[in-house]
Amino acid sequence: MEHEITQLNSVDFKEISVQLEDSILHIQFNRPHKKNAMNLALVEEVMQCFTFGANLESLRAVVIVGSEGNFCSGGDISDMHLSSLNESEREETIWHFNRSFGRMITQVKHSPIPVIAAVEGAVLGGGFGLACVADITIASDSAFFALPETGLGVIPAQIAPFVAGRIGIDHTKRLALTGEKLNAEQALHLGLVHRVCSAHSIKDQINNAIKQLKQCAPEANSNTKRLLLGLNNTPLEQILDDAAAAFVRSLSSEEGIEGTKAFMQKRKPSWCE
After folding, report:
1. pLDDT tens string 98-121
2. Residue 273 burial by CB count (10 A; 0-12/13-18/19+): exposed, middle or buried?
3. Residues 244 and 118 in one domain
4. Both 151 and 51 in a single domain?
């Protein structure tokens, strides 16, 4: 783990702050002057973190937070110097930024590591999308959620599929076509977030979620995520056949053997902390 911490600390991140501690990777958006709106550099740094984490066997969870009272206010193309480009270059640059965000949010969603998002303040546009792909989303009672794109004359191009996957097409249509703002309790009611707490207790809620995740075997968690993420794209019979094979492998794996022994011996398994 010491080598991994050194390796991560050697990366010169500009738009995020990153800390690897006790097998948890903490990512904090660090653009408070823009309410943590995501520019291309931030998107690429987040992807770099998740690529690093996917190859880190000791990693148990990734936690994503904002800074100074906001999670993320959407996308930010203000530093792209678009005015200096011709029309073709401008379109290509904007396309690349928009598509890069789609790749980033897909990477977060399909991460083999459990992802916790703790949101407060502005959770808009791309921030809304990220909240929808986290495995556990905790909201401060200060959080407010919206898809403001259509009010600006654009569309939630990369975000809409992920929002619809979380709360359904009908609710997504309503929010995207009206720009309606939701508070934390309304987001909880829709299933957009999983827990709501006061601002001063959000760190405790993050720690509780981490503690719960660490009661479960890491490889079993990763395989369970893969199983569930494949439900919409695979015929049911194939899903169940593959799941049965995965269950056999898990039962005879080191985790399965240890978990069975621990149950029989009435003790906690080795991965519990």
Report:
1. 999 999 999 999 999 999 999 999
2. exposed
3. no
4. yes
